[in-house]
Amino acid sequence: MSDLLHLFHLAVQNIHEDEHGYLVEASNRTPPETCGKCRSPDIRKFGSRQQLYNDTPIHGKQVTIQVNRQRYQCKLCKKVFHEPIHDLSSDRLVTQRLHDYVEKGSLKRTFTDVAAETGLDEKTIRNIFRDYVQRLATEVKFDTPRWMGVDEIHIIKKPRAVITNIEKNTVVELLPNRNKKSILAYFAGIKDPHTIRYVATDMWRPYREAVYEQFPHAKVVVDKFHVVKMANEAMEAVRKAVRKELTDRQRRTLMHDRFVLLKRLHDLTDQEYLKFSGWVRNYPLLGAAHALKEGFYAIWDSTSRKEAEADYARWKDDIPEELVPYFSDLVRATDNWHKEIFNYFDHPITNAYTESLNNLIRVMNRIGRGYSFDALRAKILFTEGVHRVKRKRKSTSARRQEATASLDGMGDSFMINRGFYNLATRPPEEEEMINYGAAISTLVELLENDEL
Ligand SMILES: [Zn+2]
User: Fold this and answer.
1) Do 277 and 336 sit in the same domain of this protein?
2) Distant-in-sequence, close-in-space partners of 348: CB < 8 Å, separation ≥ 6
3) How far is the CA of 29 from the centre of ligand 1 (A)?
4) Which of 39, 79, 225, 247 minimizes the number of CB atoms within 10 Å of its CB?
5) Model confidence at 394, in pLDDT bands (50, 70, 90)?
């Protein structure tokens, strides 16, 4: 009989083929010689049971293996056990290689797809995937960021929290929602939380509260982008209000007004500037709102916290009466988040990756159809080749050094290690891998090429 299966432990006895697939009768090549529990060689056969196992498809056809699974009883300890067959999964009625195939496949394709190809039902795929991700999560540990980003991304119809390493431009976690409870649960599981020095967030209260509760030593810095964005939103509200009062003919004179008004003044082309000055003459409210927006942006040109806070106070005092309603959201947010917003001037960290993150969200939502949140999360976090890693050789003495150094919040342990290199007294070394998380740029690239 041809060895269709190429499995070490299973001998093919018979092959039945029809248009749907193969049914392969097989038997164990390597029956047990001892008791699985007490290792006694004194075992006897104790009935058998026919079992059907799914295997990876062959020639595009589904494969089922029929095994007469022998049972044994140990005469010494009385334990009854099935003969172990190492090619078969111990948890499910699938071969080990199909199990591996489904694991890999469930990260790459939709569960429906993998189910259709393998002949397993979707629930089985989902369960294998769930166990796989749990295993990956214990195996793949991401380094705790020193500068952590906590942001919101909107995928599969809901806002989710995304946790990033700002220095390394990586994603380290995606949470199913952005509730305080979820954030706290995630924070509580972080090893060496003292590594975290700064947390850059948007102005979502639960983020701030969770950080202060779990990492009281860390400084929260509101991402500058999220603050100045509100000045643009105020400008946009004024623009809409002005337009509403105009006749169709007047409105036509305001071509591309949104684009021009939201742009920074110093970025306008000569032609845009010409248009802009015309509008400002005709609609002074637009001009005043624009000046206010620009003034707000200018606060971020300050070189110190003190200067920025003074600039802001002045800016707030000078808001023209008629613009107060439009800028009130911005003022309220800036006042509610005063400390965290102006922390930026002491620690100018910002989510420089915001743009690539937005790309990522856009592509993810395009390919995301048919995936559950958990599946997308696992793709992002655990796909092979997406991680930003650093190999590092380290010695026990360097490890000790590193432990002390990281307590002091000192620099790179690799450098410390190098400093300790000494051929005469070189201690035994081992290589260690630091995993910083999924590189955002690689993710975008893979997604765009349909390779994730
Ligand atoms: Zn035994």
Assistant:
1) yes
2) none
3) 22
4) 247
5) low
